[in-house]
Design brief:
With 237 residues, the chain is an all-alpha fold. The protein has helices at residues 3-19, 21-27, 29-38, 43-77, 80-98, 106-111, 113-125, 132-142, 148-157, 163-186, 190-195, 198-223.
């Protein structure tokens, strides 16, 4: 993948994070409240930043792992086009969920519940958060919270050209969620409620659906036979 297409992918991932920021802030409302109660004054924004840096670090690790699995699938199982189709479909599903038109994406959140059951006791032991290192650790753990939006981003990271690019895609996604999450954390979830506005969610949903359709276009066009040298379609008689 060349530098320009890689840059487009990173921008797209940041846009996915920004588009779903309301969902992300709502999912993490509990930790936002916990951080808000732990400290006041000037320390609260510092803890919010530390928590979110830990959260983004977890996304980056997950992106590298997803891209590694995607690489093996492409190289050894010839699953490249199928992976892109899957990524495009997941993006569309997430857009439908954000617009509250269809909630089927929640089945993917259920798939992550088993992992979260193992990590949740650890996160509980780290609360209440009163220091920056503690906030980073909580963010690292909460980054694995079952979330359809994160799984949507991971599906797109899985089709990256390398594990490093997959990690960078998820970093860009996390940075896209950062402005809303910082405000939601610093103000104990009050800002998250504003992001749940139906009109805003539907605008963001349409953007995500559009991106999903564009992701599907590549492999679909690849499967459509093109004209032969004499103007005839390949595979026809």
């Amino acid at each position: 993948m060349n530098d320009s297409s890689s840059l487009v992918s990173l921008v797209a991932m940041a846009a996915i994070g920004l588009a779903g920021a309301g969902h992300c802030a709502g999912m993490c409302g509990g930790i936002a409240t916990a951080l808000g109660m732990a400290s006041g004054g000037r320390q609260k924004p510092v803890l919010a930043l530390a928590y979110n840096l830990g959260r983004i670090a977890s996304y980056s690790i997950a992106g590298g792992l997803a891209a590694t699995l995607g690489y093996w699938g492409r190289e050894y199982l010839a699953l490249g086009p199928l992976l892109r189709v899957f990524a495009g479909i997941i993006l569309i599903f997430m857009g439908l969920y954000l617009a509250d038109w269809w909630r089927g994406i929640l089945i993917f959140e259920k798939a992550g519940v088993h992992l979260w059951r193992l990590l949740q006791p650890l996160s509980n032991r780290l609360l209440p958060v009163r220091t920056m290192p503690g906030a980073v650790l909580v963010g690292c753990v909460w980054g694995w919270l079952p979330c359809g939006l994160v799984y949507t981003a991971l599906a797109y990271a899985a089709v990256a050209g390398s594990p490093l690019e997959g990690a960078l895609r998820m970093t860009a996604f996390g940075l896209g969620t950062l402005p809303a999450m910082l405000l939601a954390t610093a103000f104990s979830g009050a800002f998250a409620r504003r992001l749940q506005d139906r009109r805003l969610r539907r605008v963001m949903a349409l953007l995500m659906i559009t991106f999903g359709i564009s992701t599907l276009a590549g492999p679909v066009m690849h499967l459509v036979p093109g004209p032969g040298p004499a103007g005839q379609v390949h595979g026809g008689h």
